[in-house]
Automatic annotation (TrEMBL):
Entries under PANTHER family matching the protein: ALDEHYDE DEHYDROGENASE-RELATED
Name of the molecule in the record: Aldehyde dehydrogenase 5, mitochondrial
Family that this chain belongs to: Belongs to the aldehyde dehydrogenase family.
One of the protein's GO biological processes: acetate biosynthetic process
Presence of keyword Oxidoreductase: yes
Active site residues according to the UniProt entry: E265
GO function terms (MF aspect): aldehyde dehydrogenase [NAD(P)+] activity
PROSITE patterns, A to Z: ALDEHYDE_DEHYDR_CYS, ALDEHYDE_DEHYDR_GLU
One Pfam family recorded for the sequence: Aldedh
CDD domains: ALDH_F1-2_Ald2-like
Amino acid sequence: MSSNHFASLTFPIINKTYEQPTGLFINNEWVASKSGKTFEVTSPITEEKLCDVQLAGEEDVEIAVQAAYKAFKTWKFVEPSVRAKCLFKLADLIEENKELIAQIESLDNGKALHCAQFDLNLVIECIRSCGGYADKNDGRSIVTDANHMTYTKREPLGVCGAITPWNFPLLMLAWKLGPCVAVGNTMVLKPASATVLSNLFVCQLIKEAGFPEGVINIIPGSGRGCGNSILNHPLIKKISFTGSTGVGKTVMTQCANSIKKVTLELGGKSPNIVFDDCNVEETIKNVIKGIFFNGGEVCCAGSRIYIQATNEEFYNSFLAKLKTAIEEIKVGNPFEEGVYQGAQTTPDQFQEVMDYIKAGKDTGLKLLTGGERIGTKGYFVKPTIFYDVPQNSKLTQEEIFGPVGVVLPFKSIDELIEKANDSDFGLGSGIHTEDLNKAIYVSDRLEAGSVWINTYNDLHQNVPFGGYKQSGIGREMGIEAFDNFVQTKAIRYKIRVPQI
Ligand code: NAP
Ligand code: MG
């Protein structure tokens, strides 16, 4: 690999230095962009530049797609156990480098180190789990009549395009790469420009894991440039997109031109429901995890907190305990001991969060806690909660994507279900109660892809994740993830009476 596509980077506070790849990863090599253009990577912790990275444009997409197209012809037919072995090896290599990669993720994204470590565990287990599926992608034998033998195959689609967001940079890569290549597809992935470092670092491990050249190509570039070229490339047969609902609509529209298969993981405004018979101590932890984990930059964040208020004493005392617990949260440099919440990832997103907070204050919403920036350097925001917020408030209806939650009271199950479902989104949800009957009754009526009972953000590689309504189409993780990356071929053989 060419040494001019690496930069030496140093982590703040821990003062450790490592070599960061900065090229485009195509055909298992680091290459420069054809235009010669680069872009700056900055850290949201310090707002300082870290390095320049090659910027992929249309010509680079063409080269990457051709590489993936060529690789597909062979990769499609290799023994599934070979694909499994590459995925297992990749999971092992990421595990061996886990601490460093988590630090890279925190440096680039701003997330607290414990959040990056959570991501890394899921990345490793997801890739390993996909390796385990590679040789189990079986079709069906179908009985029709005595004169036919009929069976199906779950065949790969070809070159798949993936476009990912900046909140879980490596985890989104894992959710797409794992099932995609396990079943014989090849891929071209464009990470969000704001957070490319962990993806590029892992490319070295992809090569070391034994993936043949062209199977996995990772090319940083802008959404409108590189992303758009991926959406429009006729050789790409499927797009797996994670990001905002707005861009998701563009993706779907663009993919219609060449009838690409599309899966979308989009935004959310998830209800986190607290009944007055819950275990209060555990529920406070789950409410905090729901909205402040990863700085609230979580598509399934429990950002609408519904608290039972038939008994005003419970409602008020829960709010008081929540306020105390939130004010104990340590926000700051992700590498500092005990920090729960790091920096917001991008200046634009930081500004958007501050604008929502201002809108809440300007419309007279009651502030339980937070509501301000912390310091003047780095994008740090105090964990913020507004309470007694109306259902039709902008802050209840729109995704904020930051550490800002709204609390709404409810007095009956019917009222709760109506309000919880009164959203364009339907990604996550939480229910906190010691009454199993209540938990199941409500979970059956929530319009959401995930329901967490007495837990929150409780993701597992074996459990499918995805959205109802405008939160998306398709599922990631679990067996369901593979359905997104295959097409069914039916083979029917006419049996004649044999003559000997
Ligand atoms: P975004 O603006 O939709 O960007 C997502 C990705 O799409 C980035 O790689 C971006 O590239 C690219 N992109 C932007 N415009 C494009 C276009 N016209 N054509 C092709 N690609 C384009 O979202 P974001 O601001 O990065 O992420 C935050 C949003 O993602 C939130 O709304 C959140 O809810 C959602 N999200 C959902 C999930 C989920 O699992 N459902 C997970 C994470 C995030 P550049 O940024 O490089 O230009
Ligand atoms: Mg960055």
